[in-house]
Design brief:
Blueprint lengths: L1 H22 L8 E5 L2 H11 L3 E5 L14 H9 L2 E4 L8 H7 L7 E4 L7 E2 H10 L4 H18 L11 E2 L6 H18 L4 H28 L4 E4 L5 H7 L2 E4 L11 H13 L4 E4 L6 H10 L2 E4 L8 H5 L4 H15 L2
Parallel strand pairs: 1-2, 1-3, 3-4, 7-8, 7-9, 9-10
Antiparallel strand pairs: 5-6
Helix pairs in contact: 2-7, 2-8, 5-6, 7-8, 8-13
Length: about 325
């Protein structure tokens, strides 16, 4: 009886070990196995790839991607994939080290999604802002440049340092379409047999992005205001592409601390332009935005940079488009 009991225990342990081993292998035979660095790329890859792809997103729900860094298991999963899609422009501070660590004979297809985007060079636009004072678009970029410099002076962490480039291109429907096109092209490269399906799915996605573009253009054109105060200065591409001016409490990195001088500048900006709302995001603490709103006796609204989903949003089947639709509603209200 004792021997039988011991044999059953050993069998149970072996089955657990086998199950754990299988759970670490995310790949699906017969499909293109794709790993993405954060949510929008995951959503685009799934919509374009359809039934022919198995897509795994690295950053868990509810986690701000600026705060996330991969564990050894994540690195192993990327290396096992057929395709690895990341944003680029310094958004993922860990990517360069990972790419350097890949074996020379690796068959992994590397996709920098932001590759075709006309990037916002922070320093470049700062200089242009000085040269062309009063132009809304350049003024917004000038403010970005000043805020980025302050972030460096305050000693923000290296992985949050985007250098002189704004990486948040996916929030603009115009730039998101370019990124989706890059993803589509590389899925075809990885799996040319299903080119027609990928092209069809991309066209459907591009049509929806065009609809967002048309809606956003109409909202901004009709709005009496063109200025927004945001907690995280992640809306530079929307500002550039649609004629808005953003000023951010915490700059390009959502967890950097604003100086007293910065808070004073934002207060003056909000009063000058009769701003009625401070716009903050869901995946970081709203305390600073709420404090500033309380000081100015105005309200707060959520403007989502679409960097990830919460658990509740996933359960409700939210995606890039539903979140962006909510953003349009927020912007329409904030610009009145």
């Amino acid at each position: 009886m004792q021997k039988i009991r011991m044999a059953l225990i050993l069998l149970f342990i072996a089955s657990i070990a086998a199950g754990c081993g299988n759970s670490n292998d995310f790949t699906v035979e017969g499909k293109v196995n794709v790993v993405t660095s954060f949510y929008p790329l995951y959503d685009f890859a799934k919509k374009i790839g359809g039934e022919h792809v198995n897509v795994v997103n690295l950053v868990p729900n509810g986690v701000e991607p600026h705060d996330w860094s991969p564990k050894p298991r994540d690195m192993s999963n990327i290396a096992k994939a057929d395709v690895f899609i990341y944003n680029g422009a310094g958004f993922e501070g860990w990517v360069d080290d990972f790419l350097d660590s890949l074996k020379k004979d690796s068959s992994l297809l590397i996709v920098e999604a932001i590759h075709e985007v006309d990037l916002i060079e922070i320093g470049e636009h700062e200089e242009e802002g000085h040269e062309e004072e009063g132009h809304e678009e350049e003024k917004g970029h000038e403010e970005e440049g000043h805020e980025e410099e302050k972030g460096h002076e305050e000693g923000s962490e290296d992985e949050h340092d985007h250098g002189n480039v704004d990486p948040h291109a996916w929030i603009s429907p115009l730039q998101a379409k370019k990124m989706a096109g890059t993803i589509k092209d590389h899925l075809i490269e990885a799996d040319p047999r299903h080119k027609n399906e990928y092209e069809t799915n991309y066209n459907l996605l591009a049509d929806r992005l065009q609809q967002l573009h048309d809606q956003l253009t109409q909202i901004v054109s009709a709005a009496p205001k063109k200025e927004i105060v945001v907690s995280h200065e992640a809306f530079g591409y929307i500002s550039r592409d649609y004629g808005l001016t953003q000023i951010g409490v915490m700059g390009l990195s959502p967890d950097s601390e604003p100086t007293v001088q910065r808070m004073k500048e934002i207060s003056e900006f909000a009063k000058e332009h009769e701003v009625k709302y401070i716009l903050f995001e869901e995946l970081v603490s709203p305390k600073i935005a709420e404090t500033l709103a309380g000081t100015l006796e105005i309200e707060t609204l959520v403007l989502n940079p679409v960097e990830g989903l919460t658990e509740e949003q996933e359960k409700s089947n939210e995606d890039y488009f539903s979140i962006m639709e909510n953003n349009l509603t927020t912007l329409e209200k904030a610009l009145q």
